[in-house]
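QA checklist item 7 of 12: single-chain prediction sanity check.
[x] sequence parsed
[x] length recorded as 282
[x] structure emitted
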Amino acid sequence: MYTLPATLLVNPVDLTPSAKVVSPATARPGEIVAYTVTVANTGLAPAEAASLQDPLPTNLRYEEGSLQCSAGRCQASGNAITWTGAVSRTAAVTLTYRAVVTGVLSHGAHITNTATLQDGLGRTITRTAVVAVALSELSKSAIVFDPLPVAAGARVTLRVLLRNSGAETADATMSLTLPPTLTLVSGSLRCGIGLCRNEGARILWSGTLPPRGLVPVQMEVDASSALVSGDWVAVEADVEDLRWGVAHRITGGFTAAWLTFMSRIYSGPPPLPPVFLPLVGK
């Protein structure tokens, strides 16, 4: 009697070293990014029937005619990339293609592109590449008043803080219309850079905001003497990024001070301060 050993190979194909990369890793809308998918096999046998599906996500558009593969059969249908073929133990298969970043995106947004690989023996793996969006970002702009609180008839400084928290220069505009409860003090409007002017109660600014820059648009305004304590005075401004066509509405305001209310219910001389009497024990 003779005994012969036998070895059973369970899923001898290993595509886990496969990778997907994108260059550049940071891009702006309208720019082209290049993807490279490397299908590598470190298993004990060739992957005879491997396949790949790589659908491009929203905000990416495949550049027609850019797809190439070093072996097997690859094709692009619309925004979907597919490949089928064999992967030996000694030579990886490389796919390359390009895509255009599209759509309205905010600074710092991520575009995630995932490819799914099947080794032909029932095992599936995924490989992902991420593009970070770099552009101007004006949503952090703000409206502030100083000093607070504000009483009826008081003069206060109104500042529109135009802030670009993005990585790209922004060509921008700002439009603000003062409410009837606020009156612009003539000659008080000024701005750090750019051009600012008023058309009656409408305040306009246009200019360039540098990356991570702040431009103040400042003016003095008089609060209406008709304000009553608790009245909310709201101010809105529209800030538009002309390059990307993105608009932001920013708001600010204040609640009229209690001094206004006191002046309405008491018209005599100022009241005397309260007198605190000591506690007397029994």
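[x] summary fact logged: Confidence is low (pLDDT under 50) at residues 260-268, 272-282.
[ ] second reviewer sign-off
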